[in-house]
Design goal:
Number of strands of chain A: 19
Oligomer: heterodimer
Largest sheet of chain A: 6 strands, mixed
Helix content of chain B: over 70%
CATH topology of the largest domain in chain A: D-Maltodextrin-Binding Protein, domain 2
Strand order of the largest sheet of chain A: 13-17-12-16-14-15
Radius of gyration of chain B: 24 Å
Number of helices of chain B: 14
CATH class of the largest domain in chain A: Alpha Beta
Number of helices of chain A: 18
Structural class of chain A: alpha+beta
Strand content of chain A: 15-25%
Structural class of chain B: mainly alpha
CATH superfamily of the largest domain in chain A: Periplasmic binding protein-like II
C-alpha cells in the first residue's frame, strides 16, 4: 500500500514538472472566476430564447411561426394581425379601399413613415416588395402566386399603392400583413446577378420596424436596438434592446429562464417543463388559446378509408379525453372540428366525436370487405404525434383492426403527403396559422382544388367545394362566416379527419416584464409593447 | 526522408479520399426520400410551384449530373449556397469551424493532459486499489451518455453552485474575429474580460467532451506502459540503478505513447462527431448544430460542405499524428 501511494505521489510530482497541471489549474481557475454576470437586466434589454435557428434575416425567404420574430420586429407590413383572437389592424397603411368587384385593393400609406436609414417609405417600396416575393417564390409567396400577377401592382402616387388581383380573393386582406416592406433603394443597391438582393438581405436589415438590427450571427441569433423614429411612436416605457437567441434544447431554455439569463422563450413546451417554470420566482407563464389544431389526416382516397363508416369507426376509436387530460395534463383545449374554436366561422354547436368503442364497432360492421392493416403515420421527434398514434393503435386493436405505426421526420413525411400512393393511411400532425382566416384551415385542407398540395386527405365533396369557393371570393362577411361554419360541420360529419385539440400557448416570461401582447400570428413575439416596470 | 515520403503520400491520397467521401455522402443525402424543395417552397405551395423551383435549383437533373457539377464546383473552391438562406455555404462554415475546433482542441488537450498521467499511474500500480478505482472511473467515462453528463454538469455547476455559465460560447457577442478562436482572439486584442468569459463558457462543454476521450487515453496509455515496462531495456535500466521515475516518465512513456497518439488522432474525429450532442446542450455555435439543422432540412449543399470540411480536418489531424510518431519514435522518420 505504502509503495503504491509513494508511486502515485511521485508520479503526480512528475506530472507537475511536465507542466500539465498548469492547464488543469487554469480550467479550475476559470470556473471559479466566472462569477455570475449581471445579465441583460441593467441595460433594459430583453433576451428571448428561441428553439428555431435564425438562419436568415430575409423577411421574404421564410414564412414560419418559429422564426417570426425578425419579420415582425424589424419589418412592417401595410396591415398587422394583433391580439387574441387576432384582429387585422391598420399598420403602415392609414386607410384602404376595396373595389366592388373585389379585384382592386388600394392602400394609403402613412406619410412620413421612415425606414431605418431615414428615407421615407413610399408606394414604390411596397411594389418592389410584392414583386420581390413573387420573384423569389419562397416563404409567403405561395399565398400570392395565382392571385397577384407580377407587374400588376401599381404605385399610383408617392403614398398610394394599388393591388390588382387576377381573381377575387376574400383571403387577400388576411395575407397582406405578410408583405413585409423592404427599402427598395437599399436592396437594389445590393443586388447581385439579379438575385433581388437575396444574399445581402439574408444577413442585413432593410426594414422600418420597431427595432433595428445591430448584430446578427446565423449560429447564435440577432440583437436589435429600438428604432426611435418608428411611425407608430413610442409609449413612456419600452425596451431599448431585444435579443433573440437560438437555444435548441428545451432544458437549456428552461434553466436559463429560471436562472435569469433569458427573459422569455417560445411557448410550445411540454407540460412538465411548464410546471417546472411555474415554480420559479423569476418567471410567469402566460396562457392563451392559440390557433394550431392537432389532428390526424385520413387518406379519404384509399380503401377502406374511402368508406364513411370506416372513418367514423376510426373517429370513435380515439381516446380524446385520455389524450388531452392524462397524456397532456389538460394543457390543450378539445377541438372537435377542422376550425380552431376561437376563429370566427367555427361552428359553435359542433358535437364531434367521443371515445366510444361500441359505436366504433357498430360503424365497423357496416364496412364491406376485409380490412387490411392500417398504417398510422407520426412525425419523428414530435413525441405527441407518436403518443397519439400509439393511443389510436390501442383503440383500433380493441375493435379488431390491425395497424402499424410509422414515425418519419418531417421532410420525409411532407414529401409523402403530396403523393397519393405514398401517403400514409393516417398521419398525426398540427395545422398552424399562416393567415388568420377560416380558409387557412378548412379551405386549404378540404378544398378538392388543393388535392395533393394542401389537401392531403384526397377528400372531395362537391357541396363543401361550393361553400368554400363562394367564401373565397365574396366580400360579404356574413356569407363567409356561414359558409365556413357549414363546410366545417360537413367535414366533421364526413369524419374526413380525426380532430383532436387546439393548442394552448404557455409563454414563459420574466416577472418584471409588462405590456405583453399575444397574437397567434406573431407567436407573442412582437416586442414593441413590452417594458419593465 | 521517410517523413517526407509519408507527407507526399498523404497528399497524393488526399484528393481521391475527399472525392470518395463526397460521392458517398452525396448519394446518401440525395436518395433518402426527403424533399427539401417542398420544404423550401413552403407549406402552401402548389405542386407546379414546387416543380418550377426544383428546376430552378437544378435538382431535377439526374443524380450523376448533379454530383459531377458539385464535385467540379468544390474543387474550384465553391461550396455552393444553402437552399434555404441563399448564403454561401463557405461563409456559414467559416463562422462555425473555429468554434468547433476550439472546443475540440481544448477537449483533446484536457483529456490527454489528464489521461496520459492517469494511464501511467494505473499501469505502474497495476492491480492495486488505485488501478481498480481508475478503471471504474474510465469505464464510467466510456459508458455515460454525453447529453446526460452535460445536463448534470449544468445542474450542478451552473444552477446549484453558479460557478460556470449555463450555455453559450461567451457573454455578449464575443471578440472581434481574427482567428475565430475566442481564447486566442481575446488575448490578441488584450480583452481579458472576454478571455475569462470564453474560458468559463468552455469549462462544461470541454469537460463533457473530454471525459470519454480521457477514458480511452487512460486505457491505451496503461496498456502501452505495461507492455514497455516488461521489456529488456527497462530491466537493464533498473539493473543499472536508474531512478524509477526517470525510467517510467522518460523511457517507458515515450515508447508507450505511440498507441496513445494514434488514438488521439482518431479521438479527434470522434470528438467532432460527439460535438453534435454537446453543442446542442450548451448552444455552442459550431459545426455540430449546423450539421443537424442541415440534415433535418435536407439542405444538400450544407450537408456536403460539413462532410467535406470534417473530412479534411480529420485527414490533416491524422497527418499531424503520423508526423508526431516520427518525433516520438525516430526510427519511423529515418
Amino acid at each position: 500500500m505504502t509503495q503504491m501511494w509513494t508511486g502515485a505521489v511521485s508520479a503526480l510530482r512528475s506530472v507537475r514538472r511536465a507542466g500539465t497541471a498548469g492547464l488543469m489549474g487554469l480550467v479550475v481557475g476559470a470556473a471559479v472566476a466566472a462569477t455570475p454576470i449581471a445579465g441583460a437586466d441593467a441595460k433594459n434589454s430583453f433576451v428571448f430564447a428561441n428553439s428555431s435557428a435564425y438562419d436568415t434575416m430575409d423577411p421574404h425567404a421564410v414564412f414560419d411561426v418559429g422564426r417570426v420574430a425578425y419579420r415582425i420586429n424589424l419589418y412592417d407590413g401595410l396591415m398587422r394581425w394583433q391580439d387574441n383572437p387576432p384582429k387585422l389592424n391598420l399598420w403602415l397603411a392609414e386607410s384602404y379601399d376595396i373595389s366592388e368587384d373585389g379585384l382592386t385593393y388600394t392602400f394609403k400609406l402613412r406619410p412620413g413613415a421612415k425606414f431605418h436609414d431615414g428615407s421615407e417609405i413610399e408606394a414604390s417600396d411596397v411594389v418592389y416588395s410584392i414583386e420581390r416575393i413573387l420573384a423569389m417564390k419562397k416563404g409567403a409567396a405561395s399565398l400570392f402566386i395565382g392571385t397577384v400577377e407580377p407587374g400588376s401592382t401599381k404605385a399610383i402616387d408617392k403614398h398610394t399603392v394599388e393591388f390588382n388581383l387576377s381573381k377575387p380573393s376574400a383571403i387577400f386582406m388576411a395575407t397582406v400583413p405578410e408583405i413585409h416592406v423592404v427599402n427598395a433603394d437599399l436592396v437594389k443597391a445590393n443586388e447581385k446577378d439579379g438575385d433581388w438582393g437575396a444574399a445581402w438581405l439574408s444577413t442585413n436589415d432593410a426594414g422600418s420596424g420597431s427595432f433595428e438590427l445591430k448584430r446578427y450571427d446565423p449560429a447564435k441569433g440577432f440583437q436589435a436596438a429600438r428604432f426611435e423614429d418608428h411611425f407608430m411612436g413610442w409609449g413612456e416605457k419600452y425596451l431599448d434592446e431585444i435579443e433573440f437567441r437560438t437555444v435548441v434544447e428545451i432544458n437549456s431554455r428552461v434553466l436559463g429562464l429560471i436562472k435569469g439569463d433569458f427573459q422569455g422563450s417560445d411557448g410550445y413546451m411540454p407540460q412538465d417543463q411548464i410546471i417546472r417554470l411555474r415554480k420559479s420566482d423569476n418567471v410567469v407563464v402566460e396562457e392563451q388559446e392559440s390557433m394550431r389544431i392537432f389532428y390526424s389526416i385520413i387518406h379519404n382516397g384509399r380503401a377502406p378509408m374511402n368508406d364513411i363508416n370506416f372513418r367514423k369507426a376510426l373517429s370513435y376509436a380515439f381516446d380524446y379525453d385520455g389524450f388531452i387530460n392524462n397524456i397532456l395534463s389538460g394543457s390543450v383545449a378539445r377541438n372537435p372540428g377542422p376550425l380552431p374554436n376561437n376563429i370566427w366561422g367555427a361552428p359553435a354547436d359542433l358535437k364531434g366525436y367521443t371515445y366510444d368503442l361500441e359505436k366504433a364497432k357498430e360503424y365497423l360492421a357496416k364496412v364491406k370487405g376485409p380490412i387490411p392493416e392500417i398504417t398510422i403515420g407520426a412525425l419523428a421527434g414530435y413525441g405527441q404525434t407518436e403518443q397519439a398514434a400509439a393511443l389510436l393503435q390501442n383503440g383500433l386493436t380493441k375493435i379488431g383492426i390491425k395497424s402499424k405505426i410509422v414515425a418519419e421526420p418531417w421532410p420525409v413525411a411532407s414529401g409523402k403527403m403530396r403523393d397519393e400512393q405514398q401517403m400514409y393511411d393516417l398521419l398525426f400532425l398540427w395545422k398552424s396559422t399562416y393567415y388568420a382566416d377560416p380558409n387557412n384551415w378548412v379551405g386549404e385542407m378540404y378544398d378538392s382544388a388543393n388535392i395533393g398540395a394542401r389537401n392531403n386527405s384526397w377528400y372531395s365533396n362537391p357541396e363543401v367545394d361550393k361553400l368554400l369557393h363562394e367564401a373565397q371570393v365574396t366580400t360579404d362577411q356574413a356569407v363567409r362566416e356561414a359558409n365556413y361554419a357549414k363546410a366545417a360541420t360537413i367535414v366533421t360529419e364526413d369524419a374526413a379527419g380525426i380532430f383532436i385539440y387546439n393548442t394552448k400557448w404557455f409563454g414563459p416570461i420574466t416577472k418584471r416584464a409588462k405590456g405583453f401582447r399575444f397574437s397567434p400570428i406573431g407567436n407573442g413575439q412582437e416586442m414593441r409593447w413590452v417594458y419593465y416596470d | 526522408m521517410k517523413l517526407l515520403v509519408l507527407i507526399l503520400n498523404r497528399f497524393f491520397w488526399f484528393f481521391p479520399t475527399i472525392l470518395g467521401l463526397m460521392v458517398i455522402t452525396f448519394t446518401i443525402s440525395h436518395v433518402i426520400p426527403a424533399d427539401p424543395v417542398a420544404f423550401v417552397a413552403g407549406d402552401n405551395a402548389t405542386n407546379e410551384q414546387i416543380e418550377a423551383l426544383r428546376a430552378e435549383l437544378g435538382l431535377d437533373q439526374p443524380i450523376h449530373v448533379q454530383l459531377y457539377r458539385y464535385v467540379i464546383d468544390v474543387f474550384q473552391g465553391n461550396f455552393g449556397q444553402s437552399l434555404y438562406t441563399q448564403r454561401p455555404i463557405a461563409d456559414d462554415l467559416a463562422g462555425r469551424v473555429p468554434a468547433t475546433l476550439e472546443l475540440t482542441f481544448v477537449a483533446v488537450l484536457l483529456s490527454a493532459a489528464i489521461g496520459i498521467p492517469l494511464g501511467v499511474i494505473s499501469a505502474v500500480n497495476r492491480n492495486s486499489l488505485l488501478d481498480h478505482a481508475l478503471r471504474l472511473f474510465t469505464v464510467s467515462g466510456l459508458a455515460i451518455a454525453a447529453f446526460w453528463l452535460a445536463i448534470l454538469l449544468q445542474l450542478l455547476f451552473a444552477m446549484e453552485l453558479g460557478w460556470t455559465p449555463l450555455q453559450g460560447r461567451v457573454d455578449g457577442w464575443g471578440p472581434d474575429e481574427i482567428t475565430g478562436f475566442y481564447l486566442i482572439d481575446s488575448l490578441i486584442t488584450g480583452d481579458f474580460e472576454v478571455f475569462w468569459s470564453a474560458l468559463a463558457h468552455m469549462v462544461l462543454p470541454a469537460l463533457t467532451l473530454a471525459f470519454p476521450a480521457m477514458a480511452t487515453i487512460v486505457r491505451f496509455t496503461r496498456a502501452g506502459v505495461l507492455e514497455a515496462i516488461n521489456s529488456n531495456y527497462v530491466m537493464y535500466e533498473e539493473a543499472m540503478g536508474f531512478p524509477r521515475r526517470v525510467i517510467v516518465w522518460k523511457y517507458v512513456l515515450r515508447n508507450a505513447l505511440i498507441g496513445t497518439v494514434t488514438q488521439i488522432g482518431l479521438i479527434f474525429g470522434i470528438l467532432i462527431a460527439n460535438a453534435v450532442v454537446v453543442e446542442a446542450v450548451f448552444d455552442w455555435p459550431g459545426l455540430g448544430l449546423y450539421a443537424v439543422q442541415s440534415i433535418l432540412q435536407s439542405d444538400y449543399n450544407a450537408i456536403m460542405g460539413f462532410t467535406v470540411v470534417a473530412g479534411v480536418i480529420f485527414i490533416i489531424v491524422n497527418l499531424i499524428v503520423d508526423v508526431a510518431h516520427g518525433f516520438i519514435d525516430p526510427r519511423e522518420s529515418r
